[in-house]
Structure formats: structure tokens, C-alpha cells
Automatic annotation (TrEMBL):
Keywords carried by this UniProt record: Acyltransferase, Transferase
GO MF term list: acyltransferase activity
Compositional bias (Basic and acidic residues): 206-222
Residue segments, region Disordered: 1-25, 182-236
Species in which this protein is naturally found: Nocardioides bruguierae
Record-given protein name: Serine O-acetyltransferase
Length: 236
């Protein structure tokens, strides 16, 4: 008799797969999840406090049924009031999340974050609503994704592993793994696009190869040539 392997989920197979799911499993300990976050947020007590409250809300929602979900909502409100951070317990968030200056960070329910991600202040991860009022989905971030300050990732987009989003950027399309995107709308950063003006071809193609040496005062608009002294009339 042949058997078919069944797919596993992060909530039933222990700590290893729960890391991938970003949600606590039956054998997980709250202390383990909190300490992993704290280890990568050294020097940021507000980030540590925010993440401890968030992880507690995840465990409460997963372990205590309906009362736990109420506790999770209270925890979410606490973070929102204290720091302006909206991080719902239902969001799967991988271990070792780093929060730099955790203020006004908005994560919509349904967003998924991989392990070792970095969020900075003002980041928004949200959905997009079409003309009929229907939500089109939420972003999914792979492992080691880094988001710059006040950037936004919107809609059913996937940001690949190791990708980075620049500050003030708006992402509405998928980002390939390891790619750096900037701008609004965000586009891949090409070599030389962030260089100094002398590095770009359009700034150098019309430069002459050699310019003759000039006197420092030559062609200066603020230098007035001396006026010749008036000649005196000759005595007769």
C-alpha cells in the first residue's frame, strides 16, 4: 500500500516549521521568540518592548481561543497608542524582526514577513482596493528584506529574499530577490544611477578635453577694468 506525503503547516509540526510560518507552534515557547527578536534589537528598548507585546499577542491568540483573541486586540491597541505601530497578531512574522525607530509603522492584516526582516519608521505594508471596493491582497516579504524609512509596499506583491526598498519608495509590483528598488513607483537601481554627476555620460560627453589656463580675474563679471585718468588740457 502506497502512502502520499501530506503537506505540513507551521502550526502542527513544531518549532522549525513554525519559524517558516511566522506563527507560534504548539511546542514553541514565548521566551524563545521574544529573545530572538531582542537579540537583533540591542540598543532599542522601544523596539524590544513593542516586539515583546506583539509576540505575546500572537501566543495569546494561538493558545487561549476567544479570550486570547481579545487579549491580542488589547496588545495591538497598546502598541498603536504608545508607538503608533499597528502590528496585528494574525500577521505571520518570521523570527528576528528588526525595528529601527518603531513609530508609525503600519502592517495590514494578511501581510506576511519572512525571517530577519528590517522595518524602519513610517513603513506601510497595506492592501489595494479596486474600483468595486474589493481588496486585491497584501504584500508578502521574503527573508532578509529591508525596508527604508517611510516607504510603502502595497497590494498583492512579493518582495524576494534579500531585496531592499529605498526610503520614500512606493512598491506596487513584485521585486526580485536581492534587488534594490527606489522611487515612486519603485524601480530597480541600475549601476551608475546613484553616482555623482561626473559619473553620468550626459554630464561628460560635451566636456572639452583641454581648456586653456585663464587668469583668475579674467572674464569675471564683478571685476571692473580700471578707468584711464582724464588728460589735462595743455597750457597755451
Amino acid at each position: 500500500m502506497s502512502t502520499t506525503a501530506q503537506p505540513t503547516t507551521g502550526l502542527t509540526t513544531g518549532p522549525a516549521s513554525s519559524d517558516e510560518a511566522g506563527l507560534p507552534g504548539p511546542g514553541d515557547r514565548l521566551r524563545t521568540w521574544v529573545l530572538r527578536d531582542w537579540a537583533v534589537n540591542a540598543g532599542y528598548p522601544d523596539s524590544r518592548a513593542c516586539l515583546a507585546v506583539f509576540r505575546f499577542s500572537q501566543f495569546a491568540a494561538a493558545r487561549w481561543g476567544r479570550p486570547g483573541r481579545v487579549v491580542a486586540l488589547v496588545c495591538q491597541a497598546l502598541n498603536a497608542l504608545a508607538l503608533g505601530v499597528e502590528l496585528p497578531a494574525v500577521c505571520p512574522v518570521g523570527p528576528r524582526l528588526r525595528l529601527f525607530h518603531p513609530h508609525t509603522v503600519i502592517v495590514n492584516p494578511g501581510v506576511r514577513l519572512g525571517a530577519d526582516c528590517v522595518l524602519r519608521h513610517g513603513v506601510t505594508l497595506g492592501n489595494v482596493v479596486d474600483a468595486d471596493g474589493h481588496e486585491r491582497g497584501n504584500p508578502v516579504l521574503g527573508d532578509r528584506v529591508e525596508l527604508g524609512a517611510t516607504c510603502a509596499v502595497l497590494g498583492p506583491v512579493h518582495v524576494g529574499e534579500g531585496a531592499r526598498v529605498g526610503a520614500l519608495s512606493v512598491v506596487t509590483r513584485d521585486v526580485a530577490p536581492g534587488v534594490v528598488v527606489v522611487g515612486s513607483p519603485a524601480r530597480p537601481l541600475t549601476p551608475g544611477s546613484a553616482g555623482t554627476p561626473q559619473d553620468t555620460p550626459q554630464d561628460t560627453q560635451h566636456q572639452p578635453e583641454h581648456q586653456p589656463e585663464q587668469h583668475p580675474d579674467q572674464h569675471r563679471a564683478d571685476v571692473v577694468p580700471p578707468t584711464p585718468a582724464p588728460s589735462l588740457p595743455h597750457e597755451v
